[in-house]
Amino acid sequence: MTGRDFIITGLQPWDIPIGSNAIDIAREIAVDNRVLYVNSALDQMTIFRNQPKPDTQQRLDVYRKKKEPLRQLSDSLWVLDFPFSVWSVNEFPDGFFFDFFNKRNNKKIFDYVKKVAAGLHFKDVIHFIDNDIYRSFYSKEFLKPSLSVYYRRDNLQPFAYWKKHVGRLEPLLIGKSDLVVCNSPQLADFARPFNPKSWDIGQGVDLSAYDPGLKFETPPEIAAISEPRIGYIGDINSLRLDADLIYELAKSKPGYSFVMIGREDKLFAGHALHNLGNVHFLGSIPKSMVPTYMSALQICLNPQLVNEITIGNYPRKVDEYLALGKPVIATKTATMELFRDHSYLCTSVAGYQAAVEDALVNNSAEKTRQRILFAQSHSWKNNVNQLFKCIGESLT
């Protein structure tokens, strides 16, 4: 698909310091099309009650008239922030009052987006909604795009912030969208009863930094930890990771080192894992350093809890692990079945224990090569081509 104009309303702002599907998709679409990426408008509560963060500072500067709303990042890619705030509506009871003020927010947002898009001479716009259930709910009515695409990349329904309204609103937004695309079969299965044009387009990953041909120098804090090193890199979050499973596994393998790299939540920070001498918490590292630390591990883990959040979640980190040729041991979920030919999938501590031993003994150059090839098939180019295929079929 070439020469089209896309507007993307991103639930994750362009300035977020972690990876973002919508941002990577925007960059890939912009190779042959024009893209206006719209950051979520700040509400009053965020402006007045919270300390500025990396993902809000740019928007705060625009709101305070310190910076211009529109940034041009390339010949075909722009990012828009709003010079105004919107109502804080999430605390309203579900129903009339929430809908009334949320609709006013939507009108204010998309009246401004239309004005900016017109100034860029955007025409026959395709609107891509990145899981933005509240502030894009009325976008089809106010923006009037040629095609409205809802991207369901996460199940937001179990999260506390979303619980009050999302159970009612998301099915309605799915139903009135022209097309729904998802990054796992399970997320698409949820959407299909509300909209038959719901498709799993898979997941893309930027693996340019995960080149197994690169020479990585082992960081000193990793070099000080004895091999074999079995590790996890990412957000260490008790909603997604099974702390007790990791504890039992590490306790059963005292001669092996377990390395946890990332920001811990309160449960992990106070967990008995910290009392085990062979478990090493290294804290957060810059995103640019992740491949370097990952390369120093002999085995990589994805020890997820199985719950509403993880069952359909696509773990991008597993592609990153595989791209470096690493043996991967993970908890078996519906989405992890996609990796079954290249990963060990486990349902118990005993399964993890056996998998660790097998991965250390039975690794090979051919297995490493197959892992790398499999991960490289999940490029953003391939992912966006699947998106374009679905859009093309919807437009005909």
What does this structure look like?
The chain folds into 2 domains: 5-204 and 379-395, Glycogen Phosphorylase B (Rossmann fold, 3-Layer(aba) Sandwich), CATH 3.40.50; 220-376, Glycogen Phosphorylase B (Rossmann fold, 3-Layer(aba) Sandwich), CATH 3.40.50. An 8-stranded mixed sheet has the order 3-4-2-1-5-6-7-8, sandwiched between helices. Strands 11-10-9-12-13-14 form a 6-stranded parallel sheet, sandwiched between helices. With 396 residues, the protein is α/β, with parallel strands linked by helices. β3 (70-74) and β4 (77-80) form a beta hairpin. It has 15 helices and 14 strands. Helices cover 37% and strands 16% of the residues. The protein has helices spanning 21-29, 44-49, 54-63, 96-119, 139-143, 166-176, 185-191, 220-223, 243-252, 266-269, 290-295, 316-323, 349-361, 365-376, 380-395; strands at 5-10, 34-39, 70-74, 77-80, 126-130, 147-152, 179-182, 198-200, 229-233, 257-261, 279-283, 299-302, 328-331, 344-346.
